């Protein structure tokens, strides 16, 4: 399993896409920190940017790589290796490469310029977000046969979580405005890994006061130890569950 | 002779298209079996089911008497040469061989006959994506024989190989057969099947039309050449209907 991961990492390092992604993240974080003396503001800006870019690149890159390595998978399946180990090896290989890009591009500048509770939350949720979108990419890739459809599905997934989901939540709030929805909102948040990450970071920043009553409730829930544990656990579920279903599909797949 | 691979009531369909309709047969050691049949008769699907790349809907595949569907350890006794070898683009030939050795980690003497025969060692630094179709086939062939497997499964082995390379492969197949190994070959080139095989399996629409020794087939039809014997066998079949 780890050996397969090792060879995938070697292969990825030789391609330039991930290096470009690392440099892009690095450029974003450095310019934001350099441009503004206020570190907190910088963190908010970085949060906004990475909540869009990180899921997009993770899901699209993992899907593309998954399909490009189809031959490699075929070769491995004819060798004495279990299918579980093949898929897990691929996940570890791709996941760790994208993660390293995020660590170099965001975690290092943040630790240098803004090492605080907020900074740590940002780094941790960014890492978890990366892995959950790689995992989602595996989920869709094992279910489709051709690359074009796989990438299309990956983009739709990103579009849904990054943009559509918030619209749907607003619609939901608007339609049921007469009811007390604060508790339901917390449940809804758990359905989107991006929102989980975002709320966790923003709540560290004391600007939740601007978010009204729901914000106060969020503060009360996610600001507490139990809330942090809950959101971390949910993010782990967003990594584990898609991977589990991907594994189930892959075991039955004809190559 | 001992049965190495047994196939019992194997069925597989892709969507509504039924590809294998209850295949029953057994492959014994020391044989070269040519699996023949028109396009889309299920040859490759049969081979891929044995390798666990295609998961059968029904039926069982036995390796030395044990069902192997869903397991993977038996694959260390199988060498597979695909129809079209496709390998990671960025990898070099040498890296590919080293990687497979590293992943399999077997302490057995490696069989590098083909590696030497095809002079692949001098091309170890070439990336896979720059290789011609023929060279890729050579790499696939060398990989299939490398770990001294009990069973060799070759899917259209000589397609794309130059005549010398194809001849070397044929010699290698006969050599391995003498050592008591089982070789399964699919091919469209009948003269080649005639030369190397001692059993012929003919598939049509996912069913075995016949599975006989080459001698028997030739005796029954009274022909000396496989191509003629086959045509005769098939036309008689049609007349009998």
Question: Could you outline the blueprint of secondary structure elements for this entry?
Answer:
The complex is a heterodimer of chains A (255) and B (241).
Chain A lengths: L1 H13 L2 H19 L3 H30 L1 H8 L5 H31 L3 H25 L5 H29 L6 H8 L3 H11 L8 H11 L2 H27 L4
Chain B lengths: L2 E12 L2 E12 L3 E5 L6 H8 L7 E6 L2 E2 L10 E4 L11 H12 L8 H5 L15 H14 L4 E5 L7 H16 L3 E5 L3 H7 L2 E6 L2 E7 H8 L4 H15 L1
Parallel strand pairs in B: 3-8, 3-9, 6-7, 7-8
Antiparallel strand pairs in B: 1-2, 1-4, 4-5, 9-10
Helix pairs in contact in B: 7-8
What would you say this structure looks like, in words?
The complex is a heterodimer of chains A (255) and B (241). Chain A is mainly alpha-helical and 255 residues long. Chain A has one domain (2-251). Chain A has helices at residues 2-14, 17-35, 39-68, 70-77, 83-113, 117-141, 147-175, 182-189, 193-203, 212-222, 225-251. Chain A is globular. Chain A starts with a helix and ends with a helix. The model of chain A has no long low-confidence stretch (mean pLDDT 88). Chain B is α/β, with parallel strands linked by helices. Chain B contains 8 helices and 10 strands. Chain B has helices at 43-50, 93-104, 113-117, 133-146, 163-178, 190-196, 214-221, 226-240, and strands spanning 3-14, 17-28, 32-36, 58-63, 66-67, 78-81, 151-155, 182-186, 199-204, 207-213. In chain B, the strands form 2 sheets. A 6-stranded mixed beta sheet of chain B has the order 6-7-8-3-9-10, with helices on both faces. A 4-stranded antiparallel beta sheet of chain B has the order 2-1-4-5, with helices on one face. In chain B, helix 5 (163-178) links the parallel strand 7 (151-155) and strand 8. The longest helix of chain B has 16 residues, at 163-178. The model of chain B has no long low-confidence stretch (mean pLDDT 88). Chains A and B meet through helix 1 and helix 4 of A and helix 2 of B.
Please provide a brief summary of the model.
Chain A has 255 residues and is mainly α. In chain A, 83% of the residues lie in helices and 0% in strands. The longest helix of chain A is centred in the middle third of the chain and has 31 residues, at 83-113.
């Amino acid at each position: 399993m780890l050996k397969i991961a090792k060879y995938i990492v070697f292969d990825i390092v030789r391609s330039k896409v991930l290096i470009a992604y690392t440099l892009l993240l690095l450029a974003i974080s450095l310019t934001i920190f350099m441009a503004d003396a206020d570190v907190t503001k910088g963190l908010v800006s970085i949060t906004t940017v990475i909540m869009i870019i990180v899921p997009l690149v993770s899901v699209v890159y993992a899907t593309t790589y998954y399909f490009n390595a189809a031959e490699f998978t075929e070769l491995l399946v004819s060798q004495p290796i279990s299918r579980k180990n093949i898929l897990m090896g691929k996940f570890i290989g791709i996941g760790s490469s994208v993660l390293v890009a995020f660590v170099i591009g965001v975690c290092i500048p943040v630790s240098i310029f803004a090492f605080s509770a907020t900074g740590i939350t940002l780094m941790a949720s960014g890492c978890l977000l990366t892995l959950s979108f790689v995992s989602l990419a595996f989920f869709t890739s094992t279910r489709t046969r051709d690359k074009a459809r796989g990438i299309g599905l990956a983009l739709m997934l990103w579009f849904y979580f990054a943009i559509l989901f918030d619209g749907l939540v607003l619609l939901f709030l608007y339609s049921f405005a007469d009811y007390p929805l604060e508790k339901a909102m917390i449940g809804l948040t758990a359905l989107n890994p991006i929102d989980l990450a975002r709320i966790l970071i923003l709540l560290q920043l004391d600007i939740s006061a601007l978010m009204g009553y729901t914000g106060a409730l969020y503060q009360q829930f996610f600001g507490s130890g139990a809330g942090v544990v809950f959101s971390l656990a949910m993010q782990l579920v967003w990594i584990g569950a898609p991977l589990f279903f991907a594994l189930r599909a892959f075991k039955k797949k004809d190559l | 002779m001992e049965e190495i691979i047994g196939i019992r009531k194997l069925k597989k369909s892709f969507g509504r298209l039924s590809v294998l309709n209850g295949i029953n047969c057994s492959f014994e050691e020391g044989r070269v079996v040519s699996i023949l049949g028109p396009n889309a008769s299920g040859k490759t699907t049969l081979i891929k089911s044995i390798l666990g790349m295609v998961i059968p809907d029904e039926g069982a595949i036995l390796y030395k008497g044990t069902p192997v569907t869903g397991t993977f350890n038996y694959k260390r006794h199988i060498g597979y040469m695909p129809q079209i070898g496709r390998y990671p683009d960025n990898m070099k030939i040498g890296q590919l061989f080293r990687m497979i050795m590293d992943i399999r980690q077997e302490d057995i003497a490696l069989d590098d006959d083909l590696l030497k025969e095809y002079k692949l060692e001098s091309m170890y630094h070439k990336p896979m994506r720059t290789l011609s179709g023929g060279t890729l086939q050579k790499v696939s062939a060398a990989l299939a024989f490398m770990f001294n497997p009990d069973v060799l499964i070759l899917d259209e082995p000589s397609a794309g190989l130059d005549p010398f390379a194809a001849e070397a492969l044929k010699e290698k197949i006969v050599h391995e057969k003498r050592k008591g190994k089982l070789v399964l070959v699919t091919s469209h080139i009948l003269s080649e099947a005639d030369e190397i095989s001692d059993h012929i399996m003919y598939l049509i629409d996912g069913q075995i039309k016949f599975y006989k020794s080459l001698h028997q087939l030739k005796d029954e039809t009274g022909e000396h050449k496989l191509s003629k014997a086959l045509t005769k066998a098939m036309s008689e079949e049609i007349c009998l209907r």
